Amino acid sequence: MIDVKKMPIDLMDDIYSLAYWMTSSEKSASDLLNRVYLNVDIESSEKEVIKMFRNCYFDSIGVELISGFTNNLYRAENNFTQSFLRWFEDIKLSVLLSEISCLKHRDISEITGESLETIRMWLSWGRKQVGNGNLFNYCPLSKAVGF
């Protein structure tokens, strides 16, 4: 099988679909798509474009990708909240990358920076939640803290 290299323009429909499923809003999806394409160039690889999507998405919802250690209790609670939300959103994104973009588990692992075993667990759990109708409609902590 020949592996065809996709250019950023070839990924636009997939990126918009990912953005729409992640945000549940046409306007937010369009804004996110624009932010992604402002930050990639014509030579960017598929993984680079999707990593940029992930970064832009987390920026748009106010979640830092890397949390530093702090002694401040408020910052620690905020880091926990952000870590939980990032975990939940990464599971959603992993399922979508597998289903919409047809990425392999190893590619998703490289994009998210998680181990292959973690991605497989996320996909298993996430697909069950999709089957139950829960994954895209519910994040208990995000609703509790107003995300």
Protein traits:
67% helix; single chain; mainly alpha; Butyryl-CoA Dehydrogenase, subunit A, domain 3; 0% strand; 147 residues
Write up what this structure looks like.
This is RNA polymerase subunit sigma-24. This protein has a single domain, classed as Butyryl-CoA Dehydrogenase, subunit A, domain 3, CATH 1.20.140. It is built from seven helices and no strands. α3 packs across α5. The N and C termini lie far apart (43 Å). The C terminus is likely disordered.
Output the helix-strand order. Answer: HHHHHHH
Task: Examine the coordinates and then state which fold CATH places here, giving the name of the CATH topology.
Answer: Butyryl-CoA Dehydrogenase, subunit A, domain 3
Number of helices: 7
Largest sheet: none
CA-atom Rg in angstroms: 16 Å
What is the CATH C level class, in words? Mainly Alpha
State the distance separating the first and last CA atoms: 43 Å
**What is the count of β-strands?**
0
Please bin the fraction of helical residues.
55-70%
Q: Unreliable stretches, pLDDT < 50, 5 or more residues?
A: 66-74, 138-147
Q: Name the overall outline.
A: globular
Specify the structural class.
mainly alpha
Assigned CATH architecture:
Up-down Bundle
Strand content: under 5%
Mean pLDDT comes to 81
Count of the domains: 1
Organism: Chlorobaculum parvum (strain DSM 263 / NCIMB 8327)
Protein name: RNA polymerase subunit sigma-24
